[in-house]
Amino acid sequence: MENYDVVIIGAGPAGLFMAKELSKDFSVCVIEKNNVGETSKFWVVSNKNVRDNRLEDCVICRPKECVYRNYLGNEFGGKIKEGNPIIDEHKVLEKWAKEAKKKKVTFHEKTIFQKFNYNRGGVKVSTSKGILQARLLIDASGESSKIAKKYGMVKIIGYHSTYGGLYENLNIDNPDKIVMWDYLKKSKPIKLWLIYPLSKSKAYTLIYLTSSKKYPIDKLKRYFKDYIKKVSYLPRMMKNAKLLESKFGYIPLYERKKAAINRVLILGDAAGLDPPCFGGGFYIVLSLYKKFAERIKEKLKENKLNSLNLQQCVKLPEIYQDNFLFQEILSYAMRNPDKEELFLKGMEVLSNRFNSRQEAKLLFSKAEPKILAKLISSLIFSYSLEEIFKLLPKENIPLFIELCTRLLEDSFVEEAYEIFNKKYPKK
Predict the structure, then answer these.
(1) How far apart are CA 393 and CA 404, in angstroms?
(2) Would the N or C end of the chain have less CB density within 10 A of its end CB?
(3) Could you tell me if 134 and 176 lie in one domain?
(4) Is the dihedral of CA 363, 247, 244, 219 positive or negative?
(5) Which of 296, 313, 330 marks a domain boundary?
């Protein structure tokens, strides 16, 4: 039986990043059901992410403009001073795997995690290729996490379903412009089209749905083809398109309950650490996981690996908590097309009252309190509190008030609680 300080399930971004960081001080083994470095996703990040994580050699390009569109004919966005880095997804994973191997991380590819049991030494991990012993088990296996489901660590409330790919032979008018949202009137679910250009003839382009369920690939393919026919500029752009690499998958939307049990920690998509409305889990990895790793190393050194200590290791900074709360509200609107007006209003507020830098911070879940306060105030100005409460599910209203408690005046919070208590009186 192989013995390690840490066994990590999954060699995606969360698993590989944690492996290369923890292996500086501890023995680490990574088990991966496929091959290390494989992914069906791609990533757009910030320039700070690139600098802080030394990923300049993984940047494909930096489009200088980001535009949001909707079926009402509104187009908004603006210039991005330093550009928005689009990362070569395979290169960054290969780079991290190489760094991990230099630190003597053991990789078991084509290996399926089966179950774990506690013993005196910590955790006994059963896989399709044998037994591993670890002091700490980290599950970064993504939305298919067996552990998260078995122990009720998260509740799935919806999914981002994506389909598309990397195409060449395109006819792109402006290769320096990202088109992020462009959807059809009254479509159920709301379908968003994304174009991330790499040159005048090459781009990542895909359809992006947010709903309460997974959409099967055959439906996504049909939506993708229908979209090309219905959106005016797409037939010309895609006329001679050649698919180089498919991009298809699901990003779960979670109601996070806990990220840890004794000697077991979940990370990445498995833990619901993606911003709930717009995705961006890779951005969270680059922004926060180094700090998470330092905290985990401290607990390993102290051998304090109970659920409470591990939970504290992955606690989000308050600025991210506030952003996640706001995004949960917009996410609800995206998952429920009959509430589409709330999503539209949120995007309209973004277009009318925020510059492109502030919008980027909101989408990447790193908006300062003053920006969030401005956004919430703008929504309240556009809707009355009673209207907002009608648009939100009951369980989201306390989250909304909690967000306001930290950002707005006390008088507003008192009014919000008064309306909430009238609408939902205690029995």
Answers:
(1) 17
(2) C
(3) no
(4) negative
(5) 313
